[in-house]
Amino acid sequence: MKKILPLILCLFFALSCFGCIQLNTQKAPIYTDSAIKNAPFKVHFIDVGQGDCILVESSGHFALIDAGENSDSHKAINYLSNLGVTSLDFAIATHPHSDHCGGFPNIFRNFSCGYFLFPETDVDTNTWYSILDAADERTVSCETTKAGDVFALGDATVTVLSPKENSIYSNLNNYSIVCIAQYQNTSVLLMGDAEKLVEKELLSESYDLCADVLKLGHHGSSSSSDKEFLRSVNPSVAIITCGKDNDYGHPHRETTDALEELGIPYRLTSKEGSIVVSSDGEKISVTSQSGSESLTESPTEMVEVTYIGNKNSHIFHRDSCESAVKTKEKNKVYFTSRDEAVSKGYDPCKGCNP
Fold first, then answer.
1. What is the pLDDT along the chain (354 residues), one digit of tens a residue?
2. Dihedral, CA atoms, 265, 279, 152, 13, nearest 10 degrees?
C-alpha cells in the first residue's frame, strides 16, 4: 500500500508515548435548532437508515467517515452533492461491517478521494474486496491507521484514539476507528461501533476524553455507552445514528435510560433525519432536517450504479446480487439501466431478476 503523503499530518512524532497526547477539553456553549451562520466547521450525521455515514467539513475541506450500506449509498451521494462536495481529502471506514463501509464503492465512483483509511484487521469478505477494488479503480491511496495518528482537515484535526497498533479483539466492532474531530475550542468524539471493552481501554489512557458532542457507539446499543464512559466524556449532546423501526431495537432502553439519568440530551437520525453540528470555534449549534435549518433532499445528477455485468459470462445483475459482489472488479461493467445492459448484449441474471 502507498504511504500517506504529507497532506495528512502525523503531529505527534516527538512524543515518547501515546498517553502523552493532550486533547482540548474546554466545553463550548451549545445551541439547539439555531444554526451558526457560515460556520467554518461542521459535522454532518447523514441519515442513511441503519448505518453510519458522517461528513466532517472544515474550511472547504471534507472527510467522510463511513458510508452506510451499499443499497443506501444514493442517500449519501445526494447529500454530498447537494452540499457541493466534489472531492474528499480522505475517507475512513471505521471497521469492515457493511452498514458502515458498504457504500464506499459508489462514493469513490462519484467523488474524487485522496486517501482511504481503515483499521488493521483480518477481513475476508466480498464487500471489503469490492471496496478495495473500487479504490484501486479510482486510484485512491489505501492505508491502515491506528491510535496516535492525526490528520489535518482544513483548519481542523482528526485524531485517532483507537485501536492501538497490534490490537487483537474477538469482536470486529472493537476494531472500530475511534476518533475525535477538533476545531479550536470545540470537539466531536466519534465512536464507530466500539463497545464497552474499548471504552474501558480509552478511560485507562492519561488524556481527558471530554467532548462537546458524542456520537454513541454501535447505534445506541446496550453493548456500548457505559455510564462511567458517558460521565468522562460529559457531552453537551449525544448523537445516535440508527434506522427507523430497525430490527435491532436501537437505541436500547438501557442506553437512553443512562443518558437521561446523567442529564445528557440526545438526538436520533431515525427521528430527525440528518443532523448537523456546526461550530465557530467557540460555540456549537445542532440542527436537523426536522428543525429550522433543514437540508434539501432534492435529487442531484450522479453516477448511481444500478446494474453490474460480468464481462466473461455476459450476464448482468442488480448491484446487490451476491454474484455481482463476487465478480472481480476487472471483470465488471456498469450500467445505469436495464435497457442499456440488454442493448450491450448482456442477459439478465436468473437469481436476482434485474
1. 444 444 444 443 333 333 344 455 456 666 555 567 789 999 999 999 999 999 999 999 999 999 999 999 999 999 999 999 999 999 999 999 999 999 999 999 999 999 999 999 988 898 999 999 999 999 999 999 999 999 999 999 999 999 999 999 999 999 999 999 999 999 999 999 999 999 999 999 876 799 999 999 999 999 999 999 999 999 999 999 999 999 999 999 999 999 999 999 999 999 999 999 999 999 999 999 765 443 333 334 444 556 788 888 989 888 778 788 778 777 888 776 787 788 888 888 888 888
2. -60
Secondary-structure percent of the chain, ordered helix, strand, coil, rounded to 5: 25, 25, 50
Exposure string over 243-260, b if 16+ CB within 10 A, otherwise e: beeeeeebbbeebbebbe
DSSP 239-306: EE---TT-TT-SSPHHHHHHHHHTT--EEEHHHHSSEEEEE-SS-EEEEETTSTTPPP----------
Q: Is the pTM of this model over 0.85?
A: no
